[in-house]
Amino acid sequence: MIECRAVTKIYKGKEIVKELNLCVEEGAFVVIEGESGGGKSTLLNMLALLVQPTSGEILIEGENIALLSDYHSSQYRKNFVGYLSQEYYLFENLSVYENLLAPLVVQDLSFGEINKRIEQKLQLAHIANKRDAKVAHLSGGEKQRVVLAKALLNNPKLLLCDEPTANLDDINTQHFIALVEQLQKEGSTLIVVTHDKRLKHLESVSRYYKMHNGMLQPRS
Amino acid sequence: MQHLFLSPSLVVEFLLNGVIFFLMSVAFVATLPFLSQRYKISQSFTYSVQKNTHLVATLLTLVLFFKLLLLPFFLYNLDKLSLFLSGAMCAAGVVSANSYGGVLVVVKLTTPLLLMLYALLYKESQMQKSHYLSRKRHILFIGVYMLVVIEMILSYLYYTHIPLNQTLSCCSTLYTNSSVHNRSTLSLLLPFYGVYGAIVFFTLQRKRVVVALLSLVFLYTSYEAITYFFSSYIYELPSHKCPYCILGSDYNYVGYLIYALLFFATFYALKDAFFKEETSYKRVLFFYTSFVFVLCYFFIHYLIKNGTFLW
Amino acid sequence: MLTKLHFALVLLLRYKNKHLLLFFLMSFLVSVVSSVFFISSSLQKDIAQTLDAQADITLQRFEAGRVLNAPQSWVDDALDIEGVSQAQGRVYGMHFYEPLEEYFLVYGVDLYDTQVVQELQKVVDTLDTEKFLERKNMLIGSGVKRFFDEFAYTDYYIFRPPDRSREKIYIYGVLDKQTDVLSNDMVLMSMQNAKKVLGVEDDFVTDVVIKVANPKELTTIVNKLKMLHFNVRIITKEDIQRYYKNIFNYKGGLFLALYIVTLLSFMLILYQRYSLTKSDELQEVAILRLSGWKIDEIVWLKLFENFVVVVSAFMSGVMVAFVYVEFFGGGVLQALFLGDENLHMCTSLSVDFDSASLFGLFLFFTLPYLGAVVLPLYRATTKDAMEILR
Q: Rounded to the nearest 5 degrees, what angle is found at the Cα of A94, between the Cα atoms of A93 and A98?
């Protein structure tokens, strides 16, 4: 279970997230929407431990993850959470395969296991044909699929998605929707920030929130 | 004095010690917030200083790596300095040039030992979900930092007080004139083998604190045994007693091996006394036994080759 | 571990261009310092070899703080001491050539006596003494020859002794290049001619050189020599060796100390590279944090990358220095050690170094380099990853 208690983030004197409270049970599918600058991405970043909150607690299964040691926070990022960012945080000069190596080489896996996992996730994200292509030569949609494959590498229990379909065409959006529904059936928890109606109106969505001026409000 | 300071290898050593001191000072400043209890009260304060522990650990690991490389280099420089100082034939004469030399050597050997223990403490604390902001570890670091400051001061005092116009003593004068020289072989070897035996016994019994204490005693008995007994068999000369000459090229730098074995043996013996989980007893046995074996090898080799003792 | 290493190498190879500038800069810095030390050790070796053949003891007459010519009788006094196997008076001095403000060494040799200095004995052995003594002849060093050739002194040179007379001495031949370090600016002539040129009286010599039969008795013999006369000054071969060792040591160390300024500037460049907020390096670090890397794993990766760069730069710098000194004679860097008060040298050097000094040089470059990388790297690894990427 994921719980945020009075989480606040102040960045350069501005309150991006204000006293946010959130409770997400295991296996839930949560959709968050709101205008830009509302703090949605910052919330996801805090849940992914990519940004430290200024105050408050972020409890995952009762443990405040913001206070974890470096060893445990990296374990959390590796094994628990998958993050599908809006921007493509990839090594431009490396190939798709080499980009997917980065999260796996710190996992104590053999080369064989690493290769197998990469192949699997590339297939899942429908980008296997671009395995050896340099990331700099890929289109926006292709890069998005690489980021998706990377997010799924460690079979995360919590998948955080920030505008996942922004650069995808219809076919790939359908693939993505099928994927998230499958993941949810398998028990993963999903928190998705999106404006895409196709995602928002999925039957499997359990909760809606609107984020405005750093505060979260539930919606029906 | 300026000429001595401008020996290239000393210039290198001073520069690197300066770099180490600078890195340690940065780590020291990063540790200061943890000495207040504020982090227990204010969560936002905790979040803001949490990252400092990473800085301290990273810097100390690097400093440890530098120090381990510099330690043999320091000993080598002491030996080389003897070429420029009249009377000193090896590092023994150089170290005894003034009262700071011996203390400096001891401090230089102690600092990497403590840094290794700190690094392990940090690694262990990382495995714990809480208490990684432990105040005790930071206090230990402050102690190590103070030792580094003392080392810098001692280095300065030592090098600036080396008498250039005085003839220094060489090892044969220094060690044959000491009171230990007149002790019987049995009184040198009995404590040496006795303490070694006790270390082996208590290690197998897993009495970690006892082993740690014995390891410190063993440092002293080994120093005496090497200087006044075993070294003669390495030099194959009854009148040559010196713990430093074995570091020289004439004896194939065997001294570095002997002292490295003793250093790591002491480290592993101390290590387990600090940690809840005991992991090092095999390494303790390995290093101590190898150390004793190497020393006995020279003694036995001489005996077999020449059929006589060097009394 | 292997997988991490593999990834580290992939990253290094794919982004090698960003390391190239640092690699070349570093190689250049290393090659300059290595050249200096190769030259120094090579010269020291040459000098040590030549000094080995020198006399064990040199006696000088020292009064009122000045070195004066010693009486010829001191030679016999020295020979009377047990343990002295050979004693010989030497006549030598500096001749000043005013137009160029250059000095060269005039050295007189008794060609019928066995030389104490072995190098001179080798020269005397190869000389046709009768022919040499037929007229006022001299042997000149290669530096003197170059100077004479430049001023068209092809056949003879006229010396101006202190008594304002003129001494015409003919050029007989050139001294062996092998002994250039000590003989480059030397002019060798008979004892008689040297005394005339330098204004040394007949019963006097410049100093007395002594060889002892057993080097272990040196200290005793030195003490006995001190008792001979109140105004005697004694210099042993060991003193000279230590003097040269100190000079080279001092000059080498001084160079290195001043070089630290260059090194620090280089470290600043490194520091800048890792601390610029939007630099590629920080972006790379943030992406690795996103991928679940621990701080010490990222630091390890970056240190490994830089370690590979610095080791390869060090090796290439040392190789360049080796070629420069061995095949091109070390050029202008020689002047650091040889100075130019005397006639300019043209020594050919053979590289001679010891591994401990090379290790010391390696530490000199590597450790500050890694230190300059790790400090700003910490800021990258502990900043919020998103702060860097946004």
A: 170
Q: Residues B29-69: pLDDT tens digits?
A: 888 877 766 556 566 666 666 677 777 777 888 888 888 88
Tell me whether strands C232-236 and C102-109 are parallel, antiparallel or unpaired: unpaired
* DSSP state at residue C109: E
pLDDT band at B91 (very low <50, low <70, confident <90, very high): confident
Gap between the Cα atoms of B230 and B241, Å rounded: 9
Beta carbons within 8 Å of B200's beta carbon, 6+ residues apart:
B285, B288, B289
How far is B302 from chain C, CA to nearest CA, in Å? 28
Q: Do the chains contact at A63 and B50, CB–CB below 8 Å?
A: no
Sequence letter at residue A194: T
Rounded to an integer, what distance in angstroms lies between the CA atom of residue A130 and that of residue A90? 15
Considering the domain A1-80+158-220 in this protein, what is its CATH number? 3.40.50.300
What's the gap in Å between the CA of B126 and the closest CA on chain A?
6
Rounded to the nearest 10 degrees, the angle between the axes of helix C280-290 and helix C237-275 is: 70
Q: What pLDDT score was predicted for residue B6?
A: 62
The model's pLDDT over B230-256, given as tens digits with 9 standing for 90+, comes to 998 998 888 888 888 888 888 888 999
* Residue spans per domain, chain C: 2-49+243-389, 86-205
d(CA C246, CA B74): 20
Inter-chain residue contact C292 with A106, CB threshold 8 Å: yes
CATH annotation of C86-205 = 2.40.40
Find the closest chain A residue to C16 by CA distance.
A93
**Does residue A200 register a pLDDT over 90?**
no
Looking at residue C40, its pLDDT comes to 80
The shortest C-alpha distance from B36 to chain C (Å) reads 22
Highest mean pLDDT among A138-147, B183-192, B270-279, C15-24 belongs to: A138-147
Residues C27-63: pLDDT tens digits? 988 888 888 888 888 877 777 777 777 788 999 998 8
Cα C107 to Cα C191, C207, C342, distances in angstroms: 8, 12, 15
- Tell me if the pTM is above 0.90: no
In chain A, CATH 3.40.50.300 sits at: 1-80+158-220
Looking at the predicted structure, is the pLDDT value of residue C346 above 50? no
How does strand A215-219 pair with strand A207-212? antiparallel
> For residue B49, what pLDDT is reported?
67
Q: Provide DSSP, C329-350.
A: TTGGGGHHHH-SSBSPP-----
Under a CB-based contact definition with an 8 Å cutoff, are residues B298 and B234 in contact? Answer: yes
In sequence order, which residues have a C-beta less than 8 Å from that of residue C273 and are 6 or more positions away? C279, C281
By Cβ distance, the residue of B69, B80, B84 closest to C363 is B69
Judge whether A87 and A166 are in contact, CB under 8 Å. Answer: no
In this predicted structure, what is the pLDDT of residue B311?
64
DSSP category for residue A95: B
Of A54, A63, A71, the CB nearest to B47: A54
CA C247 from centre of chain = 8
Contact status, residue A123 vs residue A97, Cβ threshold 8 Å: no
Contact C260 B69 (CB under 8 A): no
Of B44, B46, B126, nearest to A69 by CB-CB distance is B126
Other C-beta atoms closer than 10 Å to the C-beta of C246 total 16
Cβ within 8 Å, pair B130-A66: no
Which chains does chain C touch, 3 or more C-beta pairs < 8 A? A, B
Residues of C in contact with A90 (CB under 8 A): 287
Q: Which site among B10, B55, B75, B247 would you substitute to test the C interface, given the most C Cβ atoms closer than 10 Å to its Cβ?
A: B55
CB C32, CB C26: distance < 8 Å: no
How would you classify the pairing of strands A29-33 and A55-60?
Answer: unpaired
* Cβ pairs A/B, distance under 8 A: 29
Are B129 and A68 within 8 A, CB to CB? yes
